Amino acid sequence: QEQLVESGGGSVQAGESLTLSCVARAFTFSLYTFHWYRQVPGKGREWVALIGVGGDTNYAASVKGRFTISRDNGQSTVYLQMNDLKPEDTAVYYCHDPYHKLWGLGTQVTVAS
């Protein structure tokens, strides 16, 4: 069964870093574009970043310069390196594959001021 599994969330202080991982299972990872989104309670999901098949990337203005998305096709994994975290980055972070219409269950990131 095709699925995405996120991990790596946690609680940190402002200015610290975290790296999220998203493992794709049961499909050919290298052929698809992946996105990271985030969501806080009571709000819609906010797009964060994407990485294309060729490694091309794009970022939301709110995270550009602080977050880096990358992929390891051999490990079927997409990463989100998050530096200089701010309290407003607190959210549940989700991995998304639009081609298969897949979402992971999310991983919580909490940033204390």
Describe the structure.
The chain is mainly β and 113 residues long. Helix content is 0%, strand content 52%. It contains no helices and eleven strands. The protein has strands at 3-7, 10-13, 18-25, 34-39, 46-51, 57-59, 67-72, 77-82, 91-97, 102-103, 107-112. Strands 2, 4, 5, 6, 9, 10 and 11 form a seven-stranded mixed sheet that branches. It has a four-stranded antiparallel sheet with strand order 1-3-8-7, with no helix packed on it. The mean pLDDT is 96.
Topology:
Layout: E1 3-7, E2 10-13, E3 18-25, E4 34-39, E5 46-51, E6 57-59, E7 67-72, E8 77-82, E9 91-97, E10 102-103, E11 107-112
Parallel strand pairs: 2-11
Antiparallel strand pairs: 1-3, 3-8, 4-5, 4-9, 5-6, 7-8, 9-10, 9-11
Content-based structural category: mainly beta
Q: Which range does the strand content fall in?
A: over 45%
Q: What is the number of strand segments?
A: 11
Oligomerization status of the protein chains: single chain
Which residue ranges are poorly predicted, with pLDDT under 50 across at least 5 consecutive positions? none
Determine the N-to-C terminus distance.
40 Å
Q: What's the tally of helices? A: 0
Average residue-wise pLDDT: 96
Tell me about the largest β-sheet: 7 strands, mixed
Question: What coarse outline follows from CA principal-axis ratios?
Answer: globular
SSE order: EEEEEEEEEEE
Radius of gyration from the CA trace?
13 Å
**Helix share of residues?**
under 10%
